Automatic annotation (TrEMBL):
InterPro entries listed in its UniProt record: AminoTfrase-like_pln_mobile, MAIN-like
Domain of life: Eukaryota
Gene Ontology biological process: meristem maintenance
Organism in which the protein naturally occurs: Linum tenue
Annotated protein name in UniProt: Aminotransferase-like plant mobile domain-containing protein
All copies of domain Aminotransferase-like plant mobile, residue ranges: 1-193
Length: 218
C-alpha cells in the first residue's frame, strides 16, 4: 500500500482508481472522536523536564533506572518516557479494589491513557518510548481530554507516516499503521484474513430464507 501512496494527493493510486483513508473511516474503525478541539501543544519539554510533571500529575517520581527483566532501564530519555517502565510500574503497584481511593483510581487511569495514546495511537517505530509531548494533553481535566479531536490527529499521523514510508529507501513504518491495516481489510477484502469460524445460519433462519416469498439466493 505504501508503494501505491501518492504524497501529493494523500491517496492510494489503484488500478480501479484513487482511494484514501477518511475521518469517517477512523471514527468507525476506532471509535475516536473526530470533532472538538484540535490536538495542539508545545513540542519541547517544559522547564525542569518531564519529571516534575509526572510527579505532580501521576503521583510518583522518576527513578534513574528501573529493573526490567534483570537489567537497568532508564525511564526517561531525551524527553521520552519508557513503555517498559510504565508497564513494570503498573504490574508492580497497581491494585484497584472497592476500597481504593478515587484519587488513586484516577492516577492509574491517567497512566493507562498515557500508555494507550503514546504507546498505541502514536507510537514510535521501536514501540519502546512515549513522546513526552503527550503528557500535558492527558493530565488536565477529564472532560477536556475526551472533547479533543483524537481521530483527526490519528489520521494526520497516518498521512504523515505514509508520506514518509513511501519514499525510496525507507524500510519501516511506524505510528498508527494499525489504522491502515483495518482500513485495507474493510475496503479491500481480498487482503483480509479468512475467518476460520464463518457465521453459519441455524435451521430456522435457513427455512425462513428458503420459504420467503419470491425465493432467491442468500
Amino acid at each position: 500500500m505504501a508503494e501505491r501512496w501518492r504524497p501529493e494527493t494523500h491517496t492510494f493510486h489503484l488500478p480501479e482508481g484513487e482511494m484514501t483513508i477518511t475521518l469517517k473511516d477512523v471514527a468507525i474503525l476506532t471509535g475516536l472522536p473526530i470533532s472538538g478541539d484540535a490536538i495542539i501543544g508545545p513540542t519541547t519539554k517544559p522547564e525542569g523536564g518531564w519529571g516534575p510533571l509526572i510527579l505532580r500529575e501521576l503521583g510518583f517520581d522518576m527513578p534513574t533506572t528501573t529493573p526490567i527483566q534483570g537489567r537497568g532501564h532508564p525511564p526517561l530519555n531525551a524527553g521520552q518516557v519508557s513503555v517498559p517502565w510504565l508497564v513494570y510500574h503498573i504490574q508492580q503497584e497497581v491494585e484497584i479494589n472497592d476500597e481504593t481511593p478515587e484519587e488513586q483510581v484516577e492516577r492509574y487511569a491517567r497512566i493507562y491513557l498515557i500508555g494507550l495514546v503514546g504507546g498505541f495511537l502514536f507510537p514510535d517505530k521501536s514501540n519502546r518510548w512515549i513522546q513526552g509531548i503527550w503528557l500535558p494533553l492527558l493530565t488536565g481535566d477529564w472532560d477536556a481530554i475526551g472533547e479533543k479531536s483524537w481521530g483527526s490527529a490519528v489520521l494526520a499521523g497516518v498521512y504523515r507516516e505514509l508520506c514518509t514510508c513511501s519514499k525510496v529507501g525507507v524500510k519501516q513504518a511506524g505510528a498508527e499503521m494499525f489504522i491502515l491495516q483495518l482500513w485495507v481489510w474493510e475496503h479491500l477484502p481480498m487482503f483480509a484474513p479468512i475467518d476460520p469460524r464463518p457465521y453459519r445460519r441455524n435451521d430456522d433462519e435457513l427455512n425462513f430464507l428458503q420459504n420467503r416469498g419470491g425465493g432467491g439466493s442468500f
